[in-house]
Amino acid sequence: MNSTHELWAVVPARSGSKGFPGKNIAQLNGLPLLAHSILFAKSLPFVSKVVLSTDSQEYAEIGEKYGAYVPFLRSESASADLSMEEDILLDLSVQAKSRDIELPRSMLWLRPTHPLREQAAFVEAYGKFMSGNYSSVCVVTPEDPRIFNVRNECIHPVTSDFQGRSMIRRQDCAPAYRIFSGEFFNMPDGFDPHFLGGRIGYAAQTRQCRFDIDYQEDLDYLNYLLSTQAGHQRYGNLVQRGDGV
Fold this sequence. Notes:
By secondary structure, this protein is an alpha/beta fold. Helices cover 27% and strands 24% of the residues. The model has no long low-confidence stretch (mean pLDDT 94).
């Protein structure tokens, strides 16, 4: 079923966000949010097709306007609040097989909620992925490693770099990164929650790319920054333009 000579980009965009209704088609810099991922994928020379995975006919029509391939709508079971990437991948595989659509072996996952991206990092990640030295490769952004989680109603550092100290400089910690800007991986044969495998490589973008659009205020803030001269200079080359159809 899988072609070994192609790589498709998949843009997952369901319509049922509860915290931010219509999030994936909300406007950023004059474009629907999902269009940023579609147009970025189309700019990558190694991507042969851009697939929009959505449960919405409205979203499908918007995606097609910007050049996405939408062969079918996502099933209800892969569009629920608790559905994960592995559910969407299984749905993609099952529906493609039922329609005699041959999927490639290699995929690039591009979430609409991370619209700022650096092409050079994706080219680097693609090279690492194609080397065969990794099970998958993630495009990442730097994150402050001084993160704490909660156990027994108290906070505890995630990193061991504190080593009995109450405070530590960021520079004295091992580097930490945030994923979700994009992931290169091989299409799993079936339902597989561990589809990225055990050897995950990475390529790092700059901190400017770390925006995650989860709430309306996240989008409002980024739109505001892009409307200013300083913000446009800092972020304008990382986002798609409104004339990108």
